[in-house]
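ENTRY TYPE: paired fold submission
RECORD: A
CONTENT: sequence, then structure tokens
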Amino acid sequence: RCVIRSCAVNNDGASNGLTAPNPVAQHAVLRRAYQRAGVAPARVHYVEAHGTGTPLGDPVELQGLRLAFDSLYRARGLTPPARPHCGLGSIKSNIGHAETAAGVAGLIKVVLGLRERALYRSLHADQPSELLELDGSPFYLLDRSRAWPAPRVDGELAPRRAAVSSFGAGGANAHVVVEEYVAPDGWRDGPRARAVPRPGTPRAIVLSAKREAALARVAEDLLAQLDRRAPPLRDLAASLQLAREAWAHRAAFLAADLDELRELLTRLVASEADARIVRGDARAGRETLDALYADDQVREAMLGLVERGKPAALLELWVRGLAVDWRRLGAGERARVELPPYPLAQAHYWVGARPAAQVSAAPRPTPTEDPALGHPLLQARLSDAPPRYGLTLTGREPFLRDHVVAGRMTLPGTVSIELARAAIEHATQGAVHISLEDHRWLRPVIVEATPVQLRTTLRPISPARMDYTVELERPGGEAIVHARGHALLTAGPAPASVLDLPALARATTASARGRGASHSTMSMWWFKASATDSSATTRPCERMTTRSQSASTSARMCDEKISVWAPPSPRSIARISCTWLGSRPTVGSSRTTSGGAPSSASAMPTRCR
């Protein structure tokens, strides 16, 4: 704690520039602050400087300090001391420039120094600037931390004093004079301070915690605080009674002096039984005691326990939930002292990396592929009527490893498109052109420790149409439909493209091209929004061009030997398109065709009015 003796603020007015300091204005604000404080310059032991660390700002600030102190000495008819008595430092060498909080940061540093009786050095300032003219001045640079002893004036201890300067870029100058707080009884709130134990009236020490295990921590922290600084027992007891929340788990005792307080705290920390310490759970009897306490006569009788020399009985009631009005017992007349903070539960909630998909350490069976089927996703033909194909997913497939949603390997939606296309192509022996329509994703497929069995079933409806279903097999249970749709079958070669993509690209009004991280930024927009991980196989976007009502995207097929359509590529095209449309992909219909084995693909979504 400290006392702010005075503060002063002014403005440069017309000066050399917005950021140029003015030593005359700084001298004026310093002089005004010390005159208001009524403090002689020789009684100031430290100045927390603004400390810009620049060749212009620091010399000007030192010049303003020298002018102010010289004029204050002359005004009092005093001769400046032969040896420097006032240290200079700045917290900016520790934390940098805090902008509008710079002055507050400096004040906090000064208050901590007063509390710890220490003058702290400025970091990274071992070599003083040659521009600082310190010779013959009352100032010295704090190149090392040192103890801050209390000064003596006429043989009596006097409070430590310091000051804080802070200057703004617009010409604002501020200076604050700070003084150590000394309680009326002479006790000083500082390290290794010791209040003389004086036997007297026992004081009620009350401790509480949210959890039973934390109660010992509360006592332990208070014991450590007493080793650092020991305030008067009556002030400590009053602060515990008034400045701390009364939680459910409680302990209380009477202590006549600091030695007894330390003894009982030590026993409480060690969970040792002691008849002087009462413990209780306030939740057990709070309602009953509150009801009794509401009666005026009962309340006066309870508070009268102290007057009748039975304070321990009142503590018995407090640990069981009684809400005691400590102010009625005189606690409000005492000074507040610093108490240790409430101990945290030591539970960690750090935001770590997203958990990787769990892959079983046990060897997984490698699915056998039927070379006659001619496609890695068609591992087996399960039946001919209706045509049905099987696929075993082990979690080692690249398109699964690269598609992790919320830490779980999830089958990309485009795999079911390729499954349907490949199955229909095999069943029709590649004699027709295939157009998939109304492809719908109904349930996700999650691959974890156990291999997953998929089956693709075809149902011919007519020579020109075939329905398909991709299902997830469950041992001993009904299969779950992952995706379904239908295919339109056209005899003959694939129809010619109806879009002149080069012409459309030339007609666009904006073009976004990228390589590496730049184009992955476009293609990953929806991925990140949906907490989806992906690797190189799911980032194939090569170019995106836009105009007012439409966009075209193109993607390079990945190099894996998956087939005509590599699963990630249509998915990336869809997501890039959705990025332009300002929405996310949703369960709905899609259309894709077969014919040839392209190394790249393009799509053009059009905004509907």
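RECORD: B
CONTENT: sequence, then structure tokens
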Amino acid sequence: MPTPSLIVGLRLDGKQAAVFGNDQAAAASRAVFALDAGAHVIFYGPEIPESLAKWANVGRINAKPTSTYASSDMSQFSVAFVAGSTDLVAEKIARDARAAGVPINVTNNAELSDFTLMPTYRGSSGLQIAVTTNGVAPRVASRLLKEITSKLPTDLEPQLKQVAHLSNVAREAEQQRDQLMATMEVGDKDADISASATVGNTPALQNSSPGSVSDQAPQYMDLSTLRTSANQLSQEVSVQTAASYVAHALSDLCFVYSAPEQLLGEAALAWSRRAEKNAYGEWVSALRMETRHGAGHAVWGALSSGSRVAAIASSASLPYMVPVLMELVERKQPVVIHVAAQSLDEAADVQTDFADVFAALQTNAVFLNSSSAQEAHDVAAIAHAVAHTAQIPVIHVTSAANNESSNIKVLSHQQLAAFVSQVADNGPVSADVAVQQVLDRFKHKFSRTYCQLEYSGSKDAQTVFVSLGQVAADALAALPDILKQGNTGVLNVRALRPWDHAQFLANLPASARRLVVLSGTRGTGSAHDALLADVSVAAFVGNPLVPLSVSGENVYGFGSVGVSNTMRTVLGIEPIAEEEEEQQQPETAAASAEPMAVEDDVLAVAKRLAFPEAYGTRLEARPGERTFEVQVSSLRRMTPDTYDRNIIHIEFDTRGTDLTYEIGDALGVYGYNDQNQVRSFCQEYGLDGDVLVTAVKDGQTQTRSIFSWLTYALDLFGRPSKKFYAALADFAADEKEA
């Protein structure tokens, strides 16, 4: 038996390679190997072969007579090839190469060669695959290579190009990161606290879109209500609020990277403004951050100061965090990023989308996902426990399109802190071990079961649908009805990373022959098929007992009925008819609408005014803001009246106020509606402008008169938002109007 060789790769980009010999065909093939690797070739021989002319024309290869070669020339080369020279010449060149420490390959002479060339597949993205039998059966090696490359996933090259792009982003961010770290006092904890206090007191953006008072109430609730509802059925909670509750409870600093189309992290920001304490009895600073290149450096700096850190982010911000995530994984820093997987469809509606999440998979962080509010709460707790047990960043992905609220069982602050502490005592361990340990511990302690891979359906299923997140939830909801007409199953991928081929195959029924991946990602190709690629590779290299066919169906934006019908079509079952919504004209809808339930309690308002200390009542024009009333000294319209955009020059007179303004400062200017127009509006709709209305706005309970709400708090006569037009389209009588 031949001695196994050590397979290595030489980086020749920008280096020189020497090719010797009279055998032009063999010499040309060696030269191409070096040229493809980026080397500059010096060709010692009679003349350059015609096949290398294109390289010579661009200066990548130079020809020299063999007689001009001297032993001292060898030191300038990084690798040497000999093809077709006499034995004496080959031996001399080999001695020179060994003396200079240059690896050499001599055609048909293993004794003089330091290495051999293997049949190699070269992809357009940099992928290379080589097979060797150490000279025993070269043709077998070539056939094996052909067999392997013929079964590569069709989208593998685009995915590798995406990885290359992200690597370039990482390199571009390297210099910015070094500059930032050079100026950050990461060891100065007081500096971090000061910065946190300054930014954390910045109020959240106000929702100024038109609507009734009830429309302005955010989806999150008071933190005290969640805490008192621990382990009991609480009030209705949304997916994002459930995840934010855990992030706030288990962190000292919470960074919010929200998308413009979604008020993500508003609950955490509101709790921070109200100085709500976390599970460790400490105040939490929530900071709103920008999504841009280098996003995540603040997280890194906070971790370096020893703080417990969490982040709430839209999936669009995740690719920008890739360089930092790679560093945090390498440095074993425990942090949890709660990511809302989302994108906007053509109707400007938020849809669950994993495309940006898939683009960050190569960071080697742990990726867990959830769909419902209860899952978001539980998996968030599991994510924090895994991060501290494995000392690794964990990405908890929630379904942003799931706006429904539901009753959930909430863990108290004490339970959350104790759970994380108990499992962290078993660490540090590897990521795969940590995930399984935490899942087992959560099941034992709270009697709620989660697995890395969760199979539901028939034990005799031949077709298994594989998915994750909201798409998996929709598939599981459709499964009971589909099972009445055929054997199938759904495999919910709870842990996208770490990924284990053997574990994936072990969770499939033995009868499985066909795997269909349901992808909820926009677009085609690139990183959107990462789950399909994982499943394809598992089916190919995971040594399944029987051959498995793998295919994919993209159900982005389909909804629950669309997912069900896709599954039925794959199985050859008749799809179900989608329910047609009853089209109502605005006046008909208004007439049939149920009256809004409004609590009428004059005494409650009176008590807040009479006892401001007890109720924390403050008389402010805009709660949470430091406001000034100034005079407008100049107001000029810069664009003509016929122009559809308004550019206005305004000058303010700040005399008599405490307002100071320096270059670089930002001022928020709050306009208000014309009071005469508001009075006409109230009269037309039969509203008493002096009636007081109490509502929750930006996480604070505010009491205003109807006249004040319509004048100062609502953009009543402003330009409607995109969502307004999207909702209005449902009432269009003409298709062109929609």
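NOTES ON RECORD B: The domain at 16-117 is CATH 3.40.50.720 (Rossmann fold). The first helix runs from residue 24 to 36.
STATUS: closed
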